[in-house]
Amino acid sequence: xxxxxxxxxxxxxxxxxxxxxxxxxxxxxxxxxxxxxxxxxxxxxxxxxxxxxxxxxxxxxxxxxxxxxxxxxxxxxxxxxxxxxxxxxxxxxxxxxxxxxxxxxxxxxxxxxxxxxxxxxxxxxxxxxx
Length: 130
Prior knowledge:
Layout: H1 3-15, E1 20-23, H2 28-43, E2 48-52, E3 69-70, H3 81-91, E4 95-98, H4 106-116, E5 120-123
Helix pairs in contact: 1-2, 3-4
């Protein structure tokens, strides 16, 4: 994934008036998105960035910044916490920026759910989202 392409996609959203961003905390792409958002917040201080946790952290790493983290009240079995967290984010969003490379797995399922809910899906990976 080209970090500059991601940064430009997010910056286009900001210029179009988007000022609230939710990002997960599970994978490499989530980390890259959060890094871009932190950088862009220096240039666009009005944006709000929330890292939406699927699970409450048991241990914090020394020096770990949790100031952008939030844990929504989502009930149910922990096995489905990521899916419920993703649904929570989709219900509060108009756009979904993703990087889908294949038509299976959690990211693909998330992007499909976003598309079915009527969100504008910006896929930087090139897979066909059904």
